[in-house]
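From the pipeline queue, job 12 of 40. The input is one protein chain; the requested action is below.

Action: predict structure.
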Amino acid sequence: MRIAIAYDCLFPWSKGGGERQYRRFAEEFAAAGHEVTYLTRVQWDEEPVVEGITVKAVSNDRNLYDGNGVRTIGPALRYAYGLAKHLVANRKNYDAVLVAAVPSTNVPAVRAALIGSKVAVGVDWLEVWRPDQWRQYSGPVIGRVAGLLQWVAAKLSPIASCHSHLHARRLQAGGLRGEVVVGLGLIDPRGDVEANPDVTSPPRVIYVGRHIQDKRVEVLPAAIAEAREQIPDLTATIFGDGPSRATVIAEIERLGLRDVISTPGFVSQEELDEGIRTASVLVNPSRREGYGLVVVEACAAGTPVVLVEGDDNASVELVEPGVNGQVARSTADLGAAIVDVVSAGEPLRKSTHDWYTQVSKTNTIQATARQILDRLTRAAAPR
């Protein structure tokens, strides 16, 4: 088949779980013998070369977010317009389109552009938000519009897929007319970090991700300070960057932890892999996750994790307490959870890697890509 994947970000020019997910979907579709075009926006200074995949930019916005890390509406509308314009002009050149439902404007743009055609359309949902989430994120007016657009996008999803039971339930309750494909997982054994069964000395906490409001990175210094009351030689590395970085650094200074917590920002993949492999625990205090790729990446190395319960945190579905980490009831309980996990030592590292070895046999990004590809193939078969 001739398949288009539509998402306004492309890894590694944009970094994040969704970016890596759709890049891998494209690679898996191409590996299965299909002709794949990735429809995105300009994120580079030199034309990108991705082996086996045609990359085409349909919009030119370099920045998607405002100063607070919130997606702005202008780039979303321009990408949706460019996407629709491209598909109208090239509707005979595709047998199937897989479109990301983030932002929701993508879905009506694709469906409108392909009215009357026999192109199979799949809609992949990284997350499904509650109406009050949209209002908190985008304000009372734009938030209500965004919530309505999400509902419309669900109604317009002939083939729908997502990657957690949390978001599958929300999608089915929020307007989806058909059955949702719940991906078996997004584990990518191809990118495994070498496992490390040994306990690191001195013990070290790491965080990996963007510094934005929903990630709550700024609570980490206080949690580490609390944990150090019982583990005095505990250190930490907070990887990543974003609008909350200044607040994080201010907290580190306030608590006198500058010699304890390092903040290197974004680093090379090699340095990041080594950081994960040698950490005692990966801590992610995020209130909102659509899946949680960094959780399985840590477990692949035998590094247990600490997460925080939350109505919008699907990554907790990946944690079996006492097997591959802990789930704190709130951010106030992070320090105690860190102590529990670090104190568990080598037995927990072993069970963490054993957990990963077991789930990586089935819950892979390859399996999820095949599920989606199978649905698209069947829908496109009449052509």
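Job complete. The longest strand covers residues 35-41.
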